[in-house]
From TrEMBL:
Organism of derivation: Nostoc minutum NIES-26
Signal peptide location: none
Ranges annotated as spanning the membrane: none
Record-given protein name: Acetolactate synthase
Keyword Membrane recorded: no
Length: 626
């Protein structure tokens, strides 16, 4: 996947291997992001005692042990009869198993656990609806570039086509794309024989070691799960670590192009492991820096060379810079430049075009096919390190760059109810962003645009949004995976619609996960409501009956507080941060405050969504589109 990983890229070349008994094989798959630590001695290797008889294992036990040895710490899912043996094997392994209330939420949590820890995670489901319920979350995992393995049950061969309970076979589900590799799964297979396990282990190990995301699916028939493993050995995989680096010719051409005149740096999520190098490059060259919504904080938003966030919820200061102080070229680092990042605005295309770096060679030139683009396939960190060695220092510029405008919020004792979203964001900035080390995650919709536009981060990996799939429910459930994997606070800024759709408060209570939900409660799907109004379209109903989320949360065993006045916000946030249990803050916000999402509505209009001719005169405050 593009823009989704910039860590080390382990070599796919393996050394000759020994065959080791399944329950005693050596843990040797690693990369620079972590070392596997599921060990039974101080050497980092599970001991192999050839004089001992290897215990007999079931396929389910072998798979659980195999995943633990691949570095999996957590498995998220919903149980069922068809996968009872797999569920039991996972529960009795060193992997921590979390039983969720919905499979999509489990998949979202697994994805965010990966981003918080750098370690692969597992999703488990039963047959039939268990699999199909998980697909949206797995679709998001693939789009975000996570490393996630789905374990699902399917109907055993003798029962296929006979209307088994929740039958899962080619009689009931399409095989292509679900049980085979394709656009959803990088690797997918149905395990019909114990003899397949060594090959499957190798495929998973190599897939997890490669750069970018890796989403796999192992479908295990119910009858096969209990088959005994005898005389089956798995390979010892010694996979050397390496980085995908650009050629000397590509570096030389980059230096030539970027030295020809002033250039800007456009930072994407794929550059998240290169924050220090990008700062050094900017300061060495004087380049202006902008970032995608997912890349907030990789380059400090407080830095004098930061001109703003692009795309959905972004800043008009970026367009001011591109129009008034246009660079000759833009160095793009780890972003697809898709609609959520650029809205394909022609203003973002500099005269000399792009130098576009990504680990996926299919990315450069796609978003802006008519623009000049010099493509480079490389790990971002390695590429920028080379540039730092080759590019000359630029004379310090005396030109003042534009910066995102931070409008002063009027404080009026007569304006206290309902809560203005911008007042809420200012309090989150003070108490959560600046006053804690919590990860902040924003749900799609107006929660996304308010958070992206108004919150400011000076560190990488503290802000998470999904821009590819943008599924409702991603953050309200993914926050559990983030908090669990980092063993600390994670805060979800979400809408009432998403909170009603698929939250996992009950799961957080069960496992004592210190997640925090801040609910923007306006009794509407308000991005839809406001968007229809801006587009001049009438008649569609986007309202929701008013809901007391604090009451619901307390009924589930969490702590919660309802906020209806601006004067109570900071105290509620401080209470939540101090709490050691799941916490919900239900904030009644002003539904009529226009969110900074005008560019999305302009982009829809440009794509053919027709208005009824009613002119909207509201001033747009975000990154414009067309």
């Amino acid at each position: 996947m593009s823009q989704n990983y910039t860590g080390s890229n382990p070599s796919l070349v393996t050394e000759p291997y020994k065959e080791l008994p399944l329950n005693n094989y050596v843990e040797s798959v690693s990369d620079n992001s972590h070392q596997l630590d599921k060990v039974e001695n101080n050497t980092g290797i599970r001991p192999f005692l050839p004089d001992e008889a290897a215990p007999t294992l079931s396929v389910a036990d072998a798979i659980a042990q195999m995943l633990a040895n691949l570095g999996v710490d957590y498995a998220f899912g919903v149980a069922g009869g068809a996968m009872a043996s797999i569920w039991g094997a996972l529960s009795n392994s060193t992997i921590k198993v979390l039983n969720f209330r919905h499979e999509a939420g489990a998949a979202f949590a697994a994805s965010e656990a990966y981003f918080a820890s750098g370690r692969p995670s597992v999703v488990f489901t039963t047959a039939g609806p268990g699999i199909t319920n998980s697909l949206t979350g797995l679709f998001a995992a693939r789009g975000e570039g996570a490393k996630v393995i789905l374990l699902s049950a399917c109907t055993s061969a003798p029962q296929r086509g006979r209307w088994a309970i929740q039958e899962t076979s080619t009689y009931t589900l399409p095989s292509g794309g679900i049980f085979t590799p394709g656009t959803l799964f990088n690797y997918a297979i149905t395990i019909e024989s114990v003899a397949q396990l060594p090959q499957i282990f190798r495929r998973l190990a190599l897939g997890l070691a490669q750069p970018g995301g890796f989403v796999a699916h192992l479908s295990i028939p119910t009858g096969v799960q209990t088959s005994l493993v005898e005389d089956i050995a798995l390979p010892k995989l010694d996979i050397a670590c390496f980085q995908l680096t650009a050629s000397k010719q590509a570096i030389a051409k980059s230096v030539e192009l970027l030295s020809a005149g002033p250039f800007a740096i456009w930072v994407g999520f794929g550059a998240r492991d290169a924050a220090d190098e990008i700062r050094q490059l900017a300061e060495k060259t004087g380049a202006a820096v902008m970032c995608s919504p997912r890349a907030k904080g990789i380059f400090s938003e407080d830095h004098s060379q930061f001109v703003g966030v692009t795309g959905l919820g972004g800043h008009a200061s970026v367009l001011t810079y591109m129009e008034e102080q246009p660079p000759l070229r833009t160095l793009v680092l780890g972003t697809r430049l898709g609609e959520p990042t650029s809205f394909w605005s022609k203003t973002m295309v500099p005269k000399g075009g792009f130098v576009h770096v990504d680990i996926d060679p299919n990315v450069p030139g796609v978003a802006y096919p008519s623009a000049e683009s010099f493509p480079i396939q490389s790990d971002i960190k390695a590429y920028v390190q080379e540039l730092l060695q080759q590019l000359p220092d630029a004379p310090r510029s005396t030109i003042s760059l534009p910066h995102p405008a931070h409008k002063k919020i009027e404080t009026d004792s007569d304006i206290d109810y309902p809560v203005r979203p911008e007042v809420l964001m200012a309090a989150i900035q003070k108490i959560i962003v600046e006053g804690s080390d919590a990860i902040v995650m924003a749900e799609c919709g107006n929660s996304f645009t308010w958070s992206t536009h108004l919150l400011r981060f000076s560190q990488a990996n503290r802000y998470r949004v999904s821009t590819g799939v943008g599924a409702m429910g991603h953050t309200v459930t993914g926050v559990l995976g983030a908090a669990l994997a980092r063993n600390g606070k994670a805060v979800a800024v979400v809408g009432d619609g998403a909170m009603l759709m698929n939250n996992e408060i009950s799961t957080a209570v069960k496992y004592k996960i210190p997640a925090i939900w801040i609910v923007l409660n306006d009794a509407r799907y308000n991005m839809c409501h406001q968007g229809m109004k801006v587009l001049g379209l009438k008649g569609a109903d986007a309202t929701i009956p008013p809901t007391n989320f604090a009451m619901i949360a307390r009924a589930m065993g969490a702590e919660a507080v309802g906020v209806v006045r601006e004067s109570d916000i900071e105290a509620a946030l401080e209470q939540a941060i101090a709490s050691t249990v799941p916490f919900v803050i239900d904030v009644v916000i002003d539904p009529d405050q226009p969110a900074p999402s005008g560019a999305r509505n302009k982009s829809l209009a440009a794509q053919g969504v027709k208005s009824n001719g009613v002119k909207n005169t509201a001033k747009q405050v975000s990154f414009p589109a067309v």
